Amino acid sequence: MQENVMLVQVLVAVFFYVNCLMILTFLKKEAFRDDTRYILFAQTLFVDSAFMVLSDLLLMGSFYKYPIHQIPCIIMCTILNVLFVCTPLTLVAMCLERYVAICMPLRHADISTSRTRFRGLLIIWSISSIIPLFTLVAYLAVIPSGALLSYTVCSVELMLGKDWQAQARAISFQVLFLFMIIIIAFTYIKIMIAARGASSENKKLTSKGLRTVILHAVQLLLCIMQFLNPYVEMEAWKVDVMVFANVRYSNFIVFIIAPRCLSPLIYGLRDDKFFVVLRHYALCGLDSLLPAMFSKVKVRPG
């Protein structure tokens, strides 16, 4: 089990480094900071990085049975819940942006303004905070007096002590994710219709948009499956401690790390403009120096 934990640390470190490199690429290029698509992508990178780090801290604390004070534990779990909802909502916003860009190209510039972006980000973070704040208030309402001063092994399940709390949280997430699935399906159908009627010049753009929406749908599906993790792990806990540890480890790899690896692949590697700038900073500018160096090398005949 110790080897599994070390493997998780390596994976988290690698993807955290990649995400930080992409965030640096976004911040260095002004053209990216004025584009709604890249702004949403940067938010996804930031949210996913913070979510991976906090989830990894909870995983390590659970593995080593390290108790911490209840108050920072509750704050950490609440932030983690906000980030958990924020990622799929940002994915939905990215699908809607692709829908506007492909299906309403003449209105895209008017819709995608700085004011619209600010309102959109505000809506995303506001909706992301509703369910976690409800969970926090419900937990504080039923917690025994003096329990906030105690120490505990921190986990998200700590705030779901009562059955009605877990059921209310589950129903809220189910309704929210149902709406998100409907929106993504709507954008996919609209882009697919636009692809059929597009000219040969626009076929490539619409086809790429369809693939992007599909990949976002896969990410959303994995995020939804992650919502079931606490319930699966609780059942595993009743069986055996080692079974619980193995299930939590597998869930962390498949449903936490894997979905957050797709975002760099979708935009960081598939997007030509972003990939060129990313490669430049990843190689510390050597990509522009090497061609010039080789051009000065004289090839001797024979």
From TrEMBL:
It comes from Electrophorus electricus (Electric eel). The keyword Membrane applies. The chain crosses the membrane at residues 6-27, 39-63, 69-100, 121-151, 171-189, 210-229, 249-269. It is found in: Membrane. The keyword Transmembrane applies. GO terms for molecular function: G protein-coupled receptor activity; odorant binding; olfactory receptor activity. Gene3D superfamilies: Rhodopsin 7-helix transmembrane proteins. One of its GO terms (cellular component) is membrane. Keywords: Membrane, Transmembrane, Transmembrane helix. This is G-protein coupled receptors family 1 profile domain-containing protein. SUPFAM superfamilies: Family A G protein-coupled receptor-like. Residues 18-267 form the G-protein coupled receptors family 1 profile domain.
